Amino acid sequence: MSEEREPVRVGVLGARGRMGAEVCRTVDAADDLELVAMVDDGDGLFAVQDAGAEVVVDFTTPDVVMDNLHWCVEQGIHAVVGTSGFTPARLDRVEAWLRNRPEVGVVVAPNFALGAVLMMEFAQRAARYFESVEVIELHHPKKLDAPSGTALRTAELIAEAREAAGLGDVPDATKDELEGARGGRVRGIPVHSIRSAGLVAHQEVLFGGVGETLTLRHDSLDRSSFMPGVLLAVRAVTGRPGLTVGLGPLLG
Amino acid sequence: MSEEREPVRVGVLGARGRMGAEVCRTVDAADDLELVAMVDDGDGLFAVQDAGAEVVVDFTTPDVVMDNLHWCVEQGIHAVVGTSGFTPARLDRVEAWLRNRPEVGVVVAPNFALGAVLMMEFAQRAARYFESVEVIELHHPKKLDAPSGTALRTAELIAEAREAAGLGDVPDATKDELEGARGGRVRGIPVHSIRSAGLVAHQEVLFGGVGETLTLRHDSLDRSSFMPGVLLAVRAVTGRPGLTVGLGPLLG
Amino acid sequence: MSEEREPVRVGVLGARGRMGAEVCRTVDAADDLELVAMVDDGDGLFAVQDAGAEVVVDFTTPDVVMDNLHWCVEQGIHAVVGTSGFTPARLDRVEAWLRNRPEVGVVVAPNFALGAVLMMEFAQRAARYFESVEVIELHHPKKLDAPSGTALRTAELIAEAREAAGLGDVPDATKDELEGARGGRVRGIPVHSIRSAGLVAHQEVLFGGVGETLTLRHDSLDRSSFMPGVLLAVRAVTGRPGLTVGLGPLLG
Amino acid sequence: MSEEREPVRVGVLGARGRMGAEVCRTVDAADDLELVAMVDDGDGLFAVQDAGAEVVVDFTTPDVVMDNLHWCVEQGIHAVVGTSGFTPARLDRVEAWLRNRPEVGVVVAPNFALGAVLMMEFAQRAARYFESVEVIELHHPKKLDAPSGTALRTAELIAEAREAAGLGDVPDATKDELEGARGGRVRGIPVHSIRSAGLVAHQEVLFGGVGETLTLRHDSLDRSSFMPGVLLAVRAVTGRPGLTVGLGPLLG
Questions:
Q1: What is chain A's pLDDT, residue by residue, as a tens digit (252 residues)?
Q2: Per the CB < 8 Å rule, is B209 touching D114?
Q3: What pLDDT digit, counting tens, does each position of C215-237 carry?
Q4: Which residues contact C38 (CB under 8 A, 6 or more apart)?
């Protein structure tokens, strides 16, 4: 890197949350980034602007993230968003805002772990070659939702790929089922949620064909696993105007 | 083994089924056993008696197995039974028959694979030490029932052990569930059934405690995996009067 | 498919071997293919030509495969080769033959299971994103070589991708090692070979980065798993002049 | 528990190390234990005695642990030891000391995670039923030794059980081996060490027989996983005079 290049100025929203605090430490430790603002509940967003932030990282909550994001786009500040709850309707609204500010970049991602991003990419790629597929996600027992956002997204990507390839339903001769044993269904794909002490965040995608299975498994053992993906997004967003969903397109 | 010992005379019921045929081949190949009768639909049971069978192996169907077994006990022929569908009520009836013929032995087992038997034993043993536990069974997509008989039995053994140890429900904060995602419940234990091409018969028991998990996994890749257990039972049953449920007690 | 399309005429070399026999059954069962010649030790290759074969499938042995292949190319017959032992020098010779017959297609593949082909593709793709990687292959105990050909190829693809991305050695602080515990090394990538009764052919590739791991696993439970890949190659090779190594390029 | 029961008074040696500090927090949080002394490098052991400790927990280093332990036994203080490096010769010396102080209890354990203790017990139990077995341990890449102490101990327990059952070598037809691919050997049992970023401490024991495999897997995700085992040992040691090796005997 040339010495003339100034570090990118980064502000963090949700800076006192567990993920936000980790992001602050990570940005602070990166030579090519400068942490200029740490904002949380009760602080004004103006601190971000006053500090001259070029990029904002948002790990807040679904009820405030849309206001934060709208404000960033209006101010011409790029945004990397890890907050959950981004429905298609919400993504449409973000795109509408960006039409008025075509120079601004926004990255919204359900999962910043590189391994999870690759797992989703590979699942989408493999889907057309196997008649059977099931998604099994495993998390700590304090998780409120089942399945996880990553599992839902994975199942949707698989379903789309199967439809495009003309595959029908997964084969299943079950006649006599204990209610729930065969899991939930996301666009026809069975999804199973395991909850256990000792686990953090894990997912398996099992593909099956004639005489063989292919299994993709991702294990996140701690929050640090999300940081390389956050850094990748922060570095990429300034050169990537418009809306980007998921880290996949940034992996090149 | 001393040379004077005569081979044990064995008859097979359901001899033309896939399991029965494999049992016939296996008995035939064992030096200390002699295959004296192969009986299937339409054949009379008398062939077994005429051939002087000391032990009968039954891999038939739930609708005929009780008649077969009653007849064997009456004739004083020991029996090893792999046919499914043995409810507690059925086991009670077998015990009642055996009270009149105390010299006869009957072994009824849900699974003859040694690895599956050990998996159940270990699951029962580990259950009291972990707050979390889930059972995941994986089978080929032509299987009619979900969960498998082995998974049901495993979950029951775990539930009994947890109750005996005073453990309550497994921890689970799920508030927002896609129907079925958290699996079925067998006496409170979550059980998940995966169905996929390329699979045969597999089961995982996942235990979780503070900062750790313990996983027991059994994979049956073909029917041959059941044969060592069938041989073990055939050899043991003549010296073991009364009813034995599962191969566990025979492993010593 | 239009009704006018004639079935492709296929000859099988090594037709009495275990893989060859399975290929014969599979070709015979496919509507768009016709099995016109089954050749094995002692039979002449002329039978293939007399029968008008357009494509030959070769599952023979390393000592005869080069002669077979040379003859096919000379006769203008396309070839799909699953025989092992194809060193870079052998592949060069095949390419030289094909320069004189540019209309002929040859596919040489180390593994015809679609899942194994995808596992290799994904391993190559993921390699640049993780500092750690190890390959673990698991096979039945009658296998003569360790590691397997697929594991060697996987490790080479990973090593190439790491070099292209400027990654150095995998991190490893081991000071005190029981000889062999850390596995063998293929261009710096640790490779471990497990041999056990009850296994068929399996492979895991484990990638590790900060706080996360990504695992790719392929399980072949029987030879039938190779047949979809053989069919894919037979159908593709007539429209694909020149040499193709591995099924990857055919997956589209 | 009756209200009259006084809490057990506990001292911790190596209290500023990572494990020792976690033990201090854990003892402090337990209602039936009282943390009365925290000792580390440079502190005198007399602090332990002055504080009236009944039990000492030692997570120090191989070079000082024998002196610590000798002193404890002399003073009549029970000890729970997690420090590594206990060879058979060292254990013999501890037993000799205890002969003079028959009322004192000492527990020395290579692994305090309950799941690891059960894994070893189950491996020992299953060993006689399977012709094949391999141990695979997986750890973070900063680990200095390969294989881990737990893997060595597991392999030894398996080897003993196989010998007692009259089993010979594991089957292995390997003729052509890349050096190290087949792992290291501990009394004939193949042991493989995987090192990868993203891992903590994990072990798999794979047993294989005719058509089936049984896999035992333990995953430690953080140091907290050792605390239930430490508590179990502290509570048991006062009623268990003499030397106890491993937590197995305490699990009841």
A1: 445 578 999 999 999 998 999 999 999 999 999 999 999 988 889 999 999 999 999 999 989 999 999 999 999 999 999 998 888 899 999 999 999 999 999 999 988 999 999 999 999 999 999 999 999 999 999 999 999 989 999 999 999 999 999 999 999 999 999 999 999 999 999 999 999 999 999 999 999 999 999 999 999 998 899 999 999 999 999 999 999 998 989 987
A2: yes
A3: 999 999 988 999 999 999 999 99
A4: C11, C12, C15, C16, C20, C24
Separation between Cα atoms, residue B238 and residue B54, nearest integer Å: 8
Q: And the tokens for B37?
A: 């009768």
**pLDDT for the residue numbered D2:** 47
Among D147, D138, D136, which Cα is nearest to C176's?
A: D147
- For residue B233, give the DSSP letter: H
A175 is known as an active-site residue: no
Task: Say how many C-beta atoms besides its own lie within 10 A of residue C189's C-beta.
Answer: 24
- CB of B123 closer than 8 Å to CB of B248: no
Q: Which residues contact B236 (CB under 8 A, 6 or more apart)?
A: B107, B250
Q: Spell out which chain A residues touch chain D, with contact meaning CB-CB distance below 8 angstroms.
A: 198-200, 219, 221, 225
**In the prediction, which pLDDT does B1 show?**
44
How far is B184 from B207, CA to CA, in rounded Å? 17
Does B219 contact C200 at a Cβ distance shorter than 8 Å?
no
Q: What is the 3-state secondary structure (H, E, C) of chain C?
A: CCCCCCCEEEEEECCCCHHHHHHHHHHHHCCCEEEEEEECCCCCCHHHHHCCCCEEEECCCCCCHHHHHHHHHHHCCEEEECCCCCCHHHHHHHHHHHHHCCCCEEEECCCCCHHHHHHHHHHHHHHHHCCEEEEEEEECCCCCEECCHHHHHHHHHHHHHHHHCCCCCCCCCCCEECCCCCCEEECCEEEEEEECCCCCEEEEEEEEECCEEEEEEEEECCHHHHHHHHHHHHHHHCCCCEEEECCHHHHC
D100 contact partners, CB below 8 Å, separation of at least 6: none
Q: Please give the sequence-ordered ranges of beta strands (E in DSSP) within D141-227, or none if there are none.
A: 145-146, 176-177, 184-186, 189-195, 201-209, 212-220
Residue pair C74/C179 in contact (Cβ under 8 Å)? The answer is: no
d(CA A222, CA C211): 5
- Which residues in chain C are contacts of A130 at CB distance < 8 A? 114-115
In the numeric block, the tokens 């036994």 are attached to D73
Residues of chain C with Cβ-Cβ distance to A30 below 8 Å are: none
CA distance C236 to D6: 80
The share of chain D scoring above pLDDT 90, in percent, equals: 85
As given in the structure block, the two tokens for residue B186 are 């067998």
Q: Are strands A105-108 and A78-81 parallel, antiparallel or unpaired?
A: parallel
Q: Do C171 and D158 meet the contact criterion of CB atoms below 8 Å apart?
A: no
Mutating which of B194, B218, B221, B227 best tests the C interface, going by the most C Cβ atoms within 10 A? B221
CB A3: neighbour CB atoms within 10 A?
A: 4
Does C229 count as an annotated binding residue? no
CA distance B62 to D42: 74
DSSP letter string, A77-140: -EEEE--S---HHHHHHHHHHHHH-TT-EEEE-S---HHHHHHHHHHHHHGGG-SEEEEEEEE-
- CA dist A152 → A146, A160, C123 (Å): 9, 12, 24
Smallest CA–CA distance from B187 into chain A, residue = A178
Longest dimension (CA), chain A: 69
C58 within 8 A of C81, measured Cβ to Cβ: yes
Closest CA to A49 of A31, A68, A30: A68
**CB D182 within 8 Å of CB D134:** no
Answer with the residue of higher pLDDT: B7 or A3: B7
